[in-house]
Specification:
The protein has about 190 residues and is an alpha/beta fold. It has 6 helices and 7 strands; from the N terminus they run βαβββαββαβααα. Helix 1 crosses helix 5.
Length: about 190
Amino acid sequence: MKLIVGLGNPGKQYEKTRHNIGFEVIDVLSERFEIPLSQAKFKGIFGAGFVKGEKVILLKPLTYMNLSGEAVGAVMNYYDIELKNLLVIYDELDLPTGRIRLRQKGSAGGHNGMKSIISHTGSQEFKRIRVGISRPQNGMSISDYVLGRFSQEEQLDMQEAVKNAADACESWFDMSFLQVMNKYNQS
């Protein structure tokens, strides 16, 4: 069983913000895989179904970003999901807007949602897709920036990034994650 988690903040005021790009990827996967996010439990909203014969859970933690690990840990414990089957999608300040980068493991890199997941799983040994949002310019605070919305110009790049991240998730059902990395880290 695979668990694919998209990070973000719940509520209308956070929709389409930079920090919610993980939620957007999960929405695309939910539609693509025909897995409705209809269950509210474990401090999140999720759906379960099958993709290419393998059971998968799509999860959006509803704990706010800094406590994302509470929902991830609860789902992993309840369904007895191994770390090797966890994939987390989240925004990344240190990548150009619209670029994606896949990794098999790593530190939180200053991302509070990832810090929480590492704390609740007790490990950095899980897969991730980082979606680039660039760093703020003109002295804007990071918190204001990540909770802000994309410019019209950036929206086109982000639509492509969300599609690429969803494609990478789907590819994980057909090939090893290393092969998926080799394919999607080229662009």
